[in-house]
Design goal:
Length: 216
C-alpha cells in the first residue's frame, strides 16, 4: 500500500512536470514572436516568465527523483522513469536557452526571413503539446500501449517537418547577400530553435522504451 501511494505521488508529479514543460515551451514561442515583432519590452518580460517556468520544472524533477529514491516503483523500471523525466526536462532547458539566444544576443533577423523563423519556432517548440499528450497517455494509463506509441510516433513525424524547415531556411540564409558573420549568427539561432524538437524526439524514444518495458 505504501508503494502504491508513492507511485501515485510520482504520477502526480510527472503530470505536473510535463504540464510545466509545455507551458515553458509555449511561453518561449510567445517571447520570440514578440521579439520578431520588435516588441522588446514584452519579450524581456516574457523571458523572465520562461526562466521561472524552467526553474519550477527543475524543482518538480528533483521531487520526482526523491520519491523514486524513497522506493516508488520496482527497481526494474525506476531508473527508466527518471531518465524519461530527465529527457523531458532537457526539452525545457533547450527552450530556455533558445529564448536566451534571442534576448541576449539580439540577432538581426532580415524582414524576409522573419516568417520562416516564426514557422521554425512554432513548429519546433509547438512539439511540446504532442510530447505532453504522449506522456499523459502513458502515465495516466487511460489509453492502450498502441495509442501511447502512436503519440510518440507523431513526435517523430513533427521533428522531420522541423528538419525540412531547417534545411530550407539554412539554404535561404547562405544564398543571401548578408555578411558571412551575420549568416553564421542566424544559423546558430536556428540551431537553438531546432534543438528543442530534436530533444523532444529523444524524450519520445525514451517513452517508447519505458512503454515496452511495461509490457513485459
Amino acid at each position: 500500500m505504501i508503494i502504491f501511494k508513492k507511485e501515485k505521488e510520482v504520477i502526480e508529479l510527472i503530470l505536473k512536470h510535463v504540464e510545466k514543460v509545455e507551458e515553458c515551451l509555449s511561453t518561449v514561442v510567445t517571447t520570440i514572436e514578440a521579439y520578431l515583432l520588435d516588441d522588446l519590452n514584452k519579450a524581456k518580460g516574457l523571458g523572465h516568465q520562461v526562466d521561472s517556468l524552467e526553474s519550477e520544472a527543475d524543482m518538480i524533477r528533483h521531487d520526482i527523483r526523491d520519491k523514486l529514491y524513497s522506493g516508488a516503483y520496482m527497481p526494474l523500471i525506476r531508473e527508466d522513469i527518471y531518465k524519461l523525466v530527465e529527457c523531458i526536462d532537457t526539452v525545457a532547458n533547450a527552450a530556455e536557452k533558445c529564448c536566451d539566444v534571442f534576448l541576449n544576443q539580439r540577432p538581426a533577423i532580415p524582414k524576409d526571413m522573419k516568417p520562416h523563423f516564426l514557422d521554425a519556432i512554432r513548429k519546433s517548440l509547438g512539439i511540446g503539446e504532442s510530447l505532453k499528450n504522449a506522456v499523459l497517455c502513458y502515465i495516466k494509463g487511460e489509453c492502450s500501449i498502441e495509442v501511447a506509441r502512436h503519440h510518440a510516433m507523431i513526435i517523430g513525424v513533427k521533428e522531420s517537418e522541423v528538419d525540412k524547415i531547417e534545411w530550407d531556411l539554412t539554404k535561404k540564409i547562405f544564398v543571401s547577400p548578408l555578411e558571412y558573420s551575420h549568416k553564421l549568427h542566424l544559423r546558430r539561432c536556428l540551431e537553438s530553435i531546432v534543438e528543442v524538437s530534436d530533444l523532444a524526439e529523444d524524450a519520445a524514444d525514451r517513452l517508447e522504451l519505458v512503454t515496452l518495458k511495461s509490457m513485459v
